[in-house]
Amino acid sequence: MDSTSHELPMRTLERTASQLGCSLTDEKLALYLDEHDNLKNFQECFHIPKMKDLPLIDLSLVNEDENSIYLLGNSLGLQPRNVKKYLEEELEKWAKMGGYGHEIGKRPWITGDECIVHHMINIVGAHKDEIGLMNGLTVNLHLLLLSFFKPTSTRFKILLEAKAFPSDHYAIESQLQLHGLNVEKSMLMIKPREGEDTLRMEDILEVIEKEGDSIAVILFSGVQFYTGQLFDIPAITKAGQAKGCFVGFDLAHAVGNVELHLHDWGVDFACWCSYKYLNSGAGALAGIFIHEKHAYTMKPALAGWFGHKLESRFNMDNKLDLIPGVNGYRLSNPPILLVCALEASLEIFSQTTMKTLRRKSILLTGYMEYLIKHYYSKDKTASNKPFVKIMTPSHIEHRGCQLTLTFSIPMKSVFQELEKRGVVCDKREPSGIRVAPVPLYNSFHDVYRFIKALASAISAAKLK
């Protein structure tokens, strides 16, 4: 596989198929791409659910011993094989030495989060002292907003997407209420144009330019959870800061999915979960970023013991010696069992780069996009033929690995039939099925198998 540039997927696919003397729909192409994939061995680092173990499988339709077609990394990543080993190490240490484990071993419990934070540097593009591993995503978002959202009589609005993920919407709404502000006047929501699914960058910039003097904080997602749209983080950051706004991002669907350069882009703050593309398990330890330029000017509104400098933390004199920057936002002991799960995943990322992962991701998702359009584009000459629309932007710079699909036949029926055939994906109201070929553990043949399963599922759903 050519790994020299972010070449448009179709050019790579067409060139490779021509070399093989086959069509782009031939299984031979998928197998060749996998054979020449320099990331293929990473699949062995994960547990992939078998068909027979899925709860809604129809074993008459599949080979029960075959791997499922797992395309749900955008919601819950697969379990790294070392998770169990690392958990057992800490459970054994706890059993054998009790409280001594706080200061002894591979990952002392007092500094367990600090032991692995270096793995995040290249994933989010930040300095070590700008990154913290703590809490859950929404807890971190609240902590950040308590510091960065300081409304005045003239600058009191928060700009967000109209269809932001519910937890972000609720967090912002409650922060406004906390300050006694009128939610309808202070919650500035931007939505796509009539008849469109995704936001246009020019519309986002226009709102920032027009309303910027009254906006205190801009909070966007990096990748939109429903549509899969990748926003232009540096452009939004630059435009917002030029108007005097603080600019932050919820990177739940971006971290581990696309290249990020938070420090160089000058992003003020960000937060993310680690159970999607970072594969650390449901409810896993979340992450937080505060740019170093705010290290001595921004302080947590809510302080905890673990925000106190370690060298004097145990003086127990109740005189807070706050760690500058993001680490001052830590409240409590790092949950070591969650640290173990995150470490097992981040060690895998440390064996490659986000640039390399992104290169494969562009081709993998482009391959899926091509096959869907080839088989299921709307055919005006065959009005009864089911068709599939891809809601996610087609431009590679405007999406991560996820594609959101809508259908001309009932979506729920298609989804049920996919589940019967061992496709693990998810549906999101009102009408989307999200599929995410993840470059760390998904193969080109997984995509080929998905298209075959989709054909069968659509045929079955059409008969209902």
TrEMBL record:
<dbReference type="GO" id="GO:0005654">
    <property type="term" value="C:nucleoplasm"/>
</dbReference>
<dbReference type="Pfam" id="PF22580">
    <property type="entry name" value="KYNU_C"/>
</dbReference>
<feature type="binding site">
    <location>
        <position position="138"/>
    </location>
    <ligand>
        <name>pyridoxal 5'-phosphate</name>
    </ligand>
</feature>
<comment type="subunit">
    <text>Homodimer.</text>
</comment>
<keyword id="KW-0663">Pyridoxal phosphate</keyword>
<feature type="binding site">
    <location>
        <position position="253"/>
    </location>
    <ligand>
        <name>pyridoxal 5'-phosphate</name>
    </ligand>
</feature>
<comment type="pathway">
    <text>Amino-acid degradation; L-kynurenine degradation; L-alanine and anthranilate from L-kynurenine: step 1/1.</text>
</comment>
<dbReference type="GO" id="GO:0030170">
    <property type="term" value="F:pyridoxal phosphate binding"/>
</dbReference>
<dbReference type="InterPro" id="IPR015421">
    <property type="entry name" value="PyrdxlP-dep_Trfase_major"/>
</dbReference>
<feature type="binding site">
    <location>
        <position position="275"/>
    </location>
    <ligand>
        <name>pyridoxal 5'-phosphate</name>
    </ligand>
</feature>
<feature type="binding site">
    <location>
        <position position="137"/>
    </location>
    <ligand>
        <name>pyridoxal 5'-phosphate</name>
    </ligand>
</feature>
<protein>
    <recommendedName>
        <fullName>Kynureninase</fullName>
        <ecNumber>3.7.1.3</ecNumber>
    </recommendedName>
</protein>
<dbReference type="GO" id="GO:0034516">
    <property type="term" value="P:response to vitamin B6"/>
</dbReference>
<keyword id="KW-0007">Acetylation</keyword>
<feature type="modified residue" description="N6-(pyridoxal phosphate)lysine">
    <location>
        <position position="276"/>
    </location>
</feature>
<dbReference type="GO" id="GO:0042803">
    <property type="term" value="F:protein homodimerization activity"/>
</dbReference>
<feature type="binding site">
    <location>
        <position position="250"/>
    </location>
    <ligand>
        <name>pyridoxal 5'-phosphate</name>
    </ligand>
</feature>
<comment type="pathway">
    <text>Cofactor biosynthesis; NAD(+) biosynthesis; quinolinate from L-kynurenine: step 2/3.</text>
</comment>
<dbReference type="GO" id="GO:0043420">
    <property type="term" value="P:anthranilate metabolic process"/>
</dbReference>
<dbReference type="GO" id="GO:0034341">
    <property type="term" value="P:response to type II interferon"/>
</dbReference>
<dbReference type="GO" id="GO:0019441">
    <property type="term" value="P:L-tryptophan catabolic process to kynurenine"/>
</dbReference>
<feature type="binding site">
    <location>
        <begin position="165"/>
        <end position="168"/>
    </location>
    <ligand>
        <name>pyridoxal 5'-phosphate</name>
    </ligand>
</feature>
<dbReference type="GO" id="GO:0097053">
    <property type="term" value="P:L-kynurenine catabolic process"/>
</dbReference>
<dbReference type="GO" id="GO:0005737">
    <property type="term" value="C:cytoplasm"/>
</dbReference>
<dbReference type="GO" id="GO:0019805">
    <property type="term" value="P:quinolinate biosynthetic process"/>
</dbReference>
<comment type="similarity">
    <text>Belongs to the kynureninase family.</text>
</comment>
<dbReference type="GO" id="GO:0034354">
    <property type="term" value="P:'de novo' NAD+ biosynthetic process from L-tryptophan"/>
</dbReference>
<feature type="binding site">
    <location>
        <position position="305"/>
    </location>
    <ligand>
        <name>pyridoxal 5'-phosphate</name>
    </ligand>
</feature>
<keyword id="KW-0963">Cytoplasm</keyword>
<feature type="binding site">
    <location>
        <position position="333"/>
    </location>
    <ligand>
        <name>pyridoxal 5'-phosphate</name>
    </ligand>
</feature>
<dbReference type="GO" id="GO:0030429">
    <property type="term" value="F:kynureninase activity"/>
</dbReference>
<dbReference type="GO" id="GO:0005739">
    <property type="term" value="C:mitochondrion"/>
</dbReference>
<dbReference type="InterPro" id="IPR015424">
    <property type="entry name" value="PyrdxlP-dep_Trfase"/>
</dbReference>
<dbReference type="InterPro" id="IPR010111">
    <property type="entry name" value="Kynureninase"/>
</dbReference>
<comment type="function">
    <text>Catalyzes the cleavage of L-kynurenine (L-Kyn) and L-3-hydroxykynurenine (L-3OHKyn) into anthranilic acid (AA) and 3-hydroxyanthranilic acid (3-OHAA), respectively. Has a preference for the L-3-hydroxy form. Also has cysteine-conjugate-beta-lyase activity.</text>
</comment>
<keyword id="KW-0662">Pyridine nucleotide biosynthesis</keyword>
<keyword id="KW-0378">Hydrolase</keyword>
<dbReference type="GO" id="GO:0005829">
    <property type="term" value="C:cytosol"/>
</dbReference>
<feature type="binding site">
    <location>
        <position position="221"/>
    </location>
    <ligand>
        <name>pyridoxal 5'-phosphate</name>
    </ligand>
</feature>
<dbReference type="InterPro" id="IPR015422">
    <property type="entry name" value="PyrdxlP-dep_Trfase_small"/>
</dbReference>
